[in-house]
Amino acid sequence: MIRLSTTQSGFEAEFRALLDQARETTAQVDAAVASIIAEVRKGRDAALLDLTARFDRWQPEGAAGLRVSAAEIDAARARCAPELLDALDLAATRIERFHAAQLPNDVELDDTLGLTLGMRWGAVDAVGIYVPGGKAAYPSSVLMNAVPAAVAGVQRIAMAVPTPDGVLNDLVLAAAHRAGVTEIWRIGGAQAIAALAWGTESIAPVDRIAGPGNAYVAEAKRQVFGRVGIDSIAGPSEVVVLADASQNPSLIAIDLLAQAEHDESAQAILITTSAQMAHAVEHAVAEHLTTLPRSAIAGASWEKHGAIIVVRDWEEGAALVDRLAPEHLEVMVAEPQALFARIRHAGAAFLGANCPEALGDYVAGPNHVLPTGRTARFASGLSVFDFLKRTTWISAERRGLDAIGPAAVALAEAEGLSAHARSIALRLGQGAG
Amino acid sequence: MIRLSTTQSGFEAEFRALLDQARETTAQVDAAVASIIAEVRKGRDAALLDLTARFDRWQPEGAAGLRVSAAEIDAARARCAPELLDALDLAATRIERFHAAQLPNDVELDDTLGLTLGMRWGAVDAVGIYVPGGKAAYPSSVLMNAVPAAVAGVQRIAMAVPTPDGVLNDLVLAAAHRAGVTEIWRIGGAQAIAALAWGTESIAPVDRIAGPGNAYVAEAKRQVFGRVGIDSIAGPSEVVVLADASQNPSLIAIDLLAQAEHDESAQAILITTSAQMAHAVEHAVAEHLTTLPRSAIAGASWEKHGAIIVVRDWEEGAALVDRLAPEHLEVMVAEPQALFARIRHAGAAFLGANCPEALGDYVAGPNHVLPTGRTARFASGLSVFDFLKRTTWISAERRGLDAIGPAAVALAEAEGLSAHARSIALRLGQGAG
Predict the structure, then answer these.
(1) Is A327 a catalytic residue?
(2) Rounded distance, CA A296 to CA B211, Å?
(3) B38-80 pLDDT, tens digit each
(4) Among A205, A271, B35, B129, which is 20 to 30 Å from B408 by CA?
(5) Which CATH number applies to B2-24+236-365: 3.20.20.450, 3.30.70.3550, 3.40.50.1980, 3.30.750.24?
(6) Regarding the domain delimited by B30-112+121-230, which CATH topology (the fold level of the hierarchy) does it fall under?
(7) Do B423 and A254 touch (CB under 8 A)?
(8) Where does Zn(2+) bind (chains A, B) (predicted)?
(9) What is the ipTM of this complex?
(10) Does the CA dihedral A85-A91-A94-A100 come out positive or negative?
(11) Domain spanning A2-24+235-365: which CATH class is it, in words?
């Protein structure tokens, strides 16, 4: 953990180093992934069965056994604690409501010249949702990825989830059922991405793939991009907490550690106007770490990537936040809305002391799939927009063509595109123009 | 050119072959591009000057000479024909108006439980627009890329345009001036993309890069993706024209050729319910080709990639369009709106006989940067959305936290994320929960 203050000499260099810190080394898996994709494109179902036996150490009798049946889903749900199913349902309902509010309107624009211009939104036909298996199988991620697709109106939502050693995660199946997933396939890794993108005898190809995964999954998404759409490839997670002197240091500390417990490359940063608060939070972090079950991970993240920055005022603080463009931003100050209004770049903001980031991770409603690694400067969280696309359209009366056609002819000729020019000139009755 | 009919045996196989036809071979330039990017990151301005001398055969005295001055822009505009400046202005005004209509609204959602959820749109700070130089320097592309950024509210729009042998394109500079570009740099290729993404002593880095380019530019965009955002990487252009028996075959033919004249890998497809129209259009294409200045290119494209497909009815026709998901779709039938309503996938549609695609390429208003190669299944044309990003936010009264906090604690514990659970439980007053 590094302690910085904007009043110290050399602050700018230290802050730049923090910005440029690489928190993740990318494994070189390009060639391995290319070969797995080629294997699936060639061998299709049979290749999927082989690869699943090789990587997940289980194999059904035939490709049909790769699909989770309705009976298996029902059985899994029956094994879930009712209060967890209720919690999933509350989360799904709130996520649905928030994402429905994002749904955009079509545009239709008449000009006075006799042309009508429009933009029509439509859903992608078929989407693949990748869900990691094993210990990192998170039902909340199933909701966050599948619900926006369902709300957008996607008709076919195919989920891929590996089941290492054949073990299914009941709550993941329950979440998929609640979220409106239409097919669940017990496949993972690059082979799952290849099957979703290219299709096999059993699995119809999809148009877009979303969802997190390991280095193989991320590289496979990169390699099938263009054939299908993909969501952004997430890096390690991060939070910036802004706190003034009035806050409870123990709550700030646990919020920082909630970020840090994800994995050792996660990053938690406190920016505060109070040197006293900085000390108190540092103490409280140490204290929480003595009792947290995941203290080994959280402690390593805090040690390697954590930072506490003391600023003179919130003008300075807001400027630092914009340079960090964090995935998560907690604003725990007296007037959180006013400070948030001065900040331009963050994936998601949590305003006031009653909104720990974990509330947003599960049940608040906005998505928890967010831009990491300073990409909030130009990227956004997962939303219905990831599952919609637009078609623009034009229609014209004859007088509309007459009004703007000559300008198009002039520009087309200036660009040397004579068939373009002629296609308009012929209609204007100017012959071969 | 291939002639197909849905009534012929073997149609499905032939149509599939058309769908899978690769129209472009991608040059292997990965290593060359990686080395250019490394050179610019290390040598910065000096490297840019060297690379510009090497590739564009031109070198100013210092890095300041890479920037086009206000005086140069004024001089370039003064050399443009007034009617072309007027045409550019008409186009820019209409493009501005259409893209302003796309601007989305923020979301703010109060629930009855004591939580407020929101989504706030904001512009990217700085954008790079790449404009190809030499013979493919299109002022219309400058407008189509820069205007949406300006309408979105981007404060800094830096344009990169190579000037081979030092030659500036006057109309490109005039378009940049009209579109609201704030800086113009006479740089091109992978070195321009590297400079925009990483910055040099003279050029501040941008957050997002848009605009078309050759194989080097496309690969450089791929390689800097993540550091900055990029727009989609366009493939060869295509049009599908739907025409019934009532249309003028000569107009259909010239519209097909307007697509084909872009380059030999462009594709033009006619789908018609009339076998007679199919013959008439084929004839008219041959006739136009005898007089078109770019007939060598257009003829080669039509020969290699063109297709005429006769369908039984528009139900069949619409289904084929959705499988092709074309970049451009002309709907020249008696009721174009009704047929368009049945089609789900296309980048941009041109409805009725008064709307040749070329009208949209220049002056209609919607963007001409569109998804190619069947990607309209999941992708959309360039728009203000490419230059905006969203921040979601949450705020809660204490009763809101009380209402939904317990469900979040249950889910966090089920996922084994105990610091997440504790960050909420502590606030709920349940101790270390």
Answers:
(1) yes
(2) 46
(3) 999 999 999 999 999 999 999 998 999 999 999 999 999 999 9
(4) A271
(5) 3.40.50.1980
(6) Rossmann fold (3.40.50)
(7) yes
(8) 259, 262, 361, 420
(9) 0.95
(10) negative
(11) alpha beta
